[in-house]
């Protein structure tokens, strides 16, 4: 019975794909893949979902290209796993240690976006990926899979508004960061900084992680080519702040403000917050007491309008 159903689905998909066009091709794929319960059992006994939400996919940046643009050579109907495209050795090295699905997906990204892929290969993430490190992100970890949105879309994971949260998936993970002796407070210190607070107030011009560290070519701070290397930081700051010098660039280093490290800033901020709490609290207390007084007067009938 399953074989008959499979043949019928394959015939239906083939008929739908008879008309030209990537959207029709995607419709054929979604005959099966729009099922939320569509899964495949892995060799280790686990399950991997094959579900694709049609509504979200058709809103994505790749919708007009269709499924086959990123899954070339996949026959309609039940199909076997395809082989990854051939890439340059420096790119292939980053993908070899990865699982089949991620290796295939990232290979297709790199095939269509070779410039970004080459820059990523020289980055600290790319170098660790080529060394077999499975902790570092690849294309889909930051951009997503079937639901990749345009950068200016507010729902995009790489929209400036969402970049800190995207970076935080790894850089706020204590287990991952502990393996490399990296600080997990980089996102919280950014949020507490002038840039972070300005962004929280709705400024679209406030710097985010990628504004200073780069995008696909992020390098370790000690790398001479890094945009946040002490020798290059003034120029990086200068892209937004005219006249920025080395002292200006040193003013922010992802360090929490403490009485020991920055006593003046710490105590000024503490007093400022205390004054706000006292002022606002006093106003609220005054309004509560005044309302209570007026209520008592109404009960006694001696309120004078």
Q: What would you note in describing this structure?
A:
There is one protein chain. With 305 residues, the protein is an all-alpha fold. It has a domain at 1-77. It has 17 helices and 2 strands. The protein has a two-stranded antiparallel sheet. Residues 1-20 have low confidence and may be disordered.
Key words describing this protein structure:
305 residues, mainly alpha, two-stranded antiparallel sheet, 17 helices, 52% helix, disordered N terminus
The biggest sheet, with number of strands, parallel, antiparallel or mixed sense and barrel status, is:
2 strands, antiparallel
Low-confidence stretches: 1-20
Helix content range = 40-55%
What is the CA-atom radius of gyration, in angstroms? 27 Å
Question: What letter string, H or E per element, gives the SSE order?
Answer: HHEEHHHHHHHHHHHHHHH
